[in-house]
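User: Before I run my own analysis I want an independent prediction to cross-check against. Here's the chain; please return only the structure tokens and, at the end, one sentence I can use as a sanity check.
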Amino acid sequence: MTTLASGTDTLTRDALTVLQPGFTGTTAPDWLLRRLGEGLASVGLFGRNIASPGQLAALTAQLRAERDDVLVAIDEEGGDVTRLEVRSGSSFPGNHALGAVDDVELTHQVAHELGRRLASCGVNLNWAPSADVNSDPRNPVIGVRSFGADTELAARHTAAYVTGLQSAGVAACTKHFPGHGDTAVDSHHALPRIDVSADVLAERELAPFRTAIAAGTRAVMSAHILVPALDPDRPATLSRRILTGLLRDELGYDGLIVTDGMEMRAIAGTYGIERGSVLAIAAGADAICVGGGLADDATVLRLRDALVAAVRAGELPEERLAEAADRVRALARWAGTAGSPAESAHGTEIGLHAARRALTVTAAPGLGSPDAFEPLTEPPYVAALTPVANIAVGDETPWGVAAELIHLLPGTVTGSFSAGDGPGNEAGESAGRAALQAAGPRRIVAVVRDEHRHPWMASALETLLAARPDTIVVEMGVPQAAPRGALHIATHGAARVCGRAAAEVITGTPGL
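Assistant: Structure tokens:
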């Protein structure tokens, strides 16, 4: 194990050990390497740090040359949230698609293959899976990141995902405890509140976390949400009642507790990241995730010094900080003995296979079976009705079916239309008319995402269908709105492979 720099006292080393910072660039900056030598034990990677699998492997090797037991974490859920394939879209369809198939062995296989790819690049901690039960269809931040709205379904697939990922030697981090599904507010921007009884929480939100703990999840991530039935004063990330009383004592979990990003406005806008980090460790968290938006040495030093000062002022017990640091090191030891998995027996195309199985295809009334649909042979016009990008996903990640249709039907033309997320049928009608004009005589493929959450999008689609009832509709979010169009394809996700699976149906191209 790498020898830490002499002259760094135990308290300071422990304060560095509990941090999981990010950084900018595709090579490790000098400041990060220095902090690893002083006690920093974890690094968080994001899309900005990854250009290719080879480059990522070189980056993680650079980190391990400085500290061989470093935890290299990433937010790689597959589907909407991908860092490995941020520029192309994911090879894995995401949780909602897996829940739609409802084959736990398939979920295990997908998670194993994703874990194998992470491990081959030197990543050993994945901030996944999302165990949230998506009980509020208005949810702006979970949606297709959840296995679904059914508690038992979410629970069994969470367990399958955890075991599949960890069988590849990558630690799972089940999130967002105690459950972020019943919210209509994005915690990246504000503090969500869940107003349900403790009994409902126990039966609904906590069930997937119980199965994850039983499956041996190595880490759990806290949510920046206020749950008055559990703690009326502090959000879960800062609540001793929730992290220690519920997760540790009641549910019997003894692994690593990681916070969600402390720079998110739910915490930073109310407590500040320094005070928030101190309160989180005091409440029972073991690792502070920071770096999605704050990624520099100054932030690391501010948090380190805030933790040290809190201990010296008697606000944070030194034993609690030492316990947290020990859990980080324990997970690093587990990751160091996990080994490298062989190539999956089920093949590298398992993500596309899952995306194909997840499709729900509905024909328009009067058309009969979807089998009666005549596949397109001429290049269509793809009208993408595009909502405002979600910060958790990253607006640089492509989505839709256009790229795949261009590949299968060269000459396909595409356009993006948006009216924002405010009310108003007029704005939607305007977007619909613009799409009609741009399409001309071409057959239209309208691509929507969570139509039920965006009134303008529903209005735009109505305008399209009124003028062109032969329009094909592809829903790439949670399919809550009634199917409509000459053919309606629900993909249950917006990953690249979901677009490929839909394009195969539209063009009648048989799956490989």
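Sanity check: The chain is about 40% helix and 10% strand.
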